Amino acid sequence: MAIEPRLIVTDREADGTSVFVTDKPAAPTTIAAFPGTFYTMWGTDDGGTTVGTEPHEPKTFPFFPGPGGTRVLFLRFAPHSSEPEPTGDPDATAAEGAEKLPGLLDVFEADNPGMHTTDSIDYGVCLEGELHLELDDGKEVKLTPGALVVQQGTRHAWHNKSDKPALMCYVLIGASREG
């Protein structure tokens, strides 16, 4: 049975008592420019965050956090065999991506499909299926459930070469790029 992403959030009452404030299935988002389903779960403001008696709302956009901000998401990659051929108006496809997942498509290279670089430290955990991580030298590693990738702002692409979906959970921490 496939994992169904679910968001559970805790907080505090005014008297400091811990409570559950959210327990719901995550909302799926799809865009024509990307063969998969995104579940944007939670995020924090850039520059860091605090905990205490003030409630926090999720900061899920822009897609990639700035320095000190965070994002958590699940991403179910469609099998390569089911990826549709690009059709339609490229401007409309880009506009849909910008509307539904602001900032996501900005990091992708137009002349190298799938390749991208982000200013973040990303922890990626493979939960279901198989996924290949390609780096800019063309070398790849296959991830299977239980594998953890630490992406340190490097140029890369993800490929689902299997005939089944692959589910990843990502924690993105915004960083400043040196050099």
TrEMBL record:
Residues 116-168 form the Cupin type-2 domain. CDD domains: cupin_BLL6423-like (cd02231). Gene3D superfamilies: Jelly Rolls (2.60.120.10). Pfam families: Cupin_2. It comes from the Bacteria. PANTHER family: CUPIN TYPE-2 DOMAIN-CONTAINING PROTEIN, SLR2101 PROTEIN. This is Cupin type-2 domain-containing protein. It comes from Streptomyces abyssalis.
